[in-house]
Amino acid sequence: MPEDLLQPPAEAAPTAEPPKPAARPPEVPEKFWDAAAGTLRTEALLKSYLELERRLSQRAARPGADAAPEELARFRQAMGIPESPEGYSITAPHALCCADAEVNGQLHAAHFSQDQAQLVYDLAAQKLLPLIAEAAAAYEADRQRAALVAHYGGEDAYRRIAGQLAAWGQAKLPPTVYAALASTAEGVMALEQMMRGQEPGLARESAPPGAESETELRALMRDPRYWRTRDPQFIQRVTEGFRRLVGSPG
């Protein structure tokens, strides 16, 4: 469209001022902020992140067999591993699971931390001790049974007398006394003597003054002298104690 020369020229629009750069957010370090552009320096941030990732991976990686002592020391410090096996502080979860120097040495060589080493002992107490106790009880029962088989002249003879003793003992004796006698070879032999009339009739009253009670006799049977070393005098004491619980028939 042709310009109207009779009209005054239009005033030029004022020039807009350029926008000010954005301010740096407080959570962004200065080295990652371009103040002139008001933007994040992504290249510097990415480079710093990659370097941090590299250092962390090296720090967490398990040192090789040829690692320098300084590298091993840094790794152990970062992972909570003591400087030596003696540095483990093990709380024994059971009397049979106390700290063992040889075990601790192997744990330290495998780079176990303090918490991991403690867990090994805790799991041993929780899982292995019950299995060991069961195996020991089964072994002792087999040993006691073998002694009875030999005493009675063979498996068949023992089975015959065992059935008779079980029937008589369960009918004549209190359950706790029968269970105590039937749990050992010596107890079974004492039970046979009672059945054959050498020690008739179990007294239901209390034991005579000075004699061990049934509870005390059961405690004596748990003594290692009774079940481990098989002390003849100690075994005789227990056997006689049960015999003293036997009275004359009414």
From TrEMBL:
Top-rank lineage group of the source organism: Bacteria
Stretch list, region Disordered: 1-31
Name of protein: Uncharacterized protein
Pro residues bias: start-end ranges: 16-26
Alphabetized InterPro entries for the sequence: Gp9-like
